[in-house]
């Protein structure tokens, strides 16, 4: 049985992935690509703009704000902080001249707000393999995400482009009134 023809989405060059390999760089144009069983897509990363101290400061400001319980910032204690790159499917949709972007988690998460973040397109850079140790591997296949999108009213012919994007994400755990969050 012949190996499937795998081509770079940027230059069309033939790719020769090793068995089981999901992330690779095109030897011709140096694009970072992700191999899903159903398709080859661009693989991007968003560079972090905050360090742990700045992210912790943003958390404390949120805790002190009006969207939380009174005195959450004073009555809670941060117990841990972790940094990693979380995968999202970026889907560019279009019909006619109108274009929109939809984000869907590419790994299991309970944080539904990730779908609502805004990705500054100019800050996306090709994914670097050196981040693999800090990156959550994608566990939601592209085909599953496209099926979910269809079930929510997105026709497949509206999909203009799909990419895998790893975003920098700080996760903080804190205790409040004897419960962990």
**What is the count of DSSP helices, taking H or I runs of 4+ residues?**
3
**Binned strand content:** 35-45%
For the sheet with most strands, the description reads: 8 strands, mixed
Global Rg: 19 Å
Average pLDDT value?
89
Oligomer: single chain
Shape: globular
Helix content: 10-25%
Alpha-carbon distance between the termini?
Answer: 51 Å
Topology order in helix (H) and strand (E) letters: EEEEEHHEEEHEE
Structural class: mainly beta
The overall strand count is 10
In the predicted model, the low-confidence regions spanning at least 5 consecutive residues are none
Describe the overall structure.
By secondary structure, the chain is mostly beta strands. It is about 15% helix and about 40% strand. It has three helices and ten strands. The protein is globular, with a radius of gyration of 19 Å. The termini are far apart.
Give the gist of this structure.
The chain has helices at residues 52-64, 72-75, 142-151, and strands at residues 6-7, 14-15, 23-25, 32-35, 40-46, 76-95, 98-105, 124-126, 159-176, 179-180. With 181 residues, it is mainly beta.
Set down the secondary structure blueprint:
Elements: E1 6-7, E2 14-15, E3 23-25, E4 32-35, E5 40-46, H1 52-64, H2 72-75, E6 76-95, E7 98-105, E8 124-126, H3 142-151, E9 159-176, E10 179-180
Parallel strand pairs: 5-9
Antiparallel strand pairs: 1-2, 3-4, 4-5, 5-8, 6-7, 6-9, 9-10
């Amino acid at each position: 049985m012949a190996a499937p023809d795998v081509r770079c989405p940027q230059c069309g060059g033939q790719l020769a992935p090793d068995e089981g390999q999901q992330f690779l760089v095109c030897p011709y144009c140096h694009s970072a690509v992700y191999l899903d069983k159903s398709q080859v897509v661009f693989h991007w990363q968003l560079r972090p703009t905050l360090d742990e101290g700045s992210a912790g400061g943003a958390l404390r400001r949120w805790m002190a704000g009006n969207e939380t319980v009174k005195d959450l910032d004073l009555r809670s204690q941060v117990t841990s902080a972790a940094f990693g790159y979380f995968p999202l499917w970026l889907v560019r949709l279009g019909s006619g001249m109108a274009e929109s972007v939809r984000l869907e988690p590419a790994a299991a998460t309970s944080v539904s707000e990730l779908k609502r973040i805004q990705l500054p397109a100019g800050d996306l850079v090709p994914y670097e393999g050196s981040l693999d140790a800090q990156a959550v591997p994608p566990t939601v296949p592209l085909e599953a995400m496209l099926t979910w999108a269809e079930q929510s009213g997105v026709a497949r012919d509206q999909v203009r482009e799909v990419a895998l994007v790893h975003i920098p994400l700080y996760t903080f755990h804190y205790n409040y009134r004897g419960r962990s969050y």
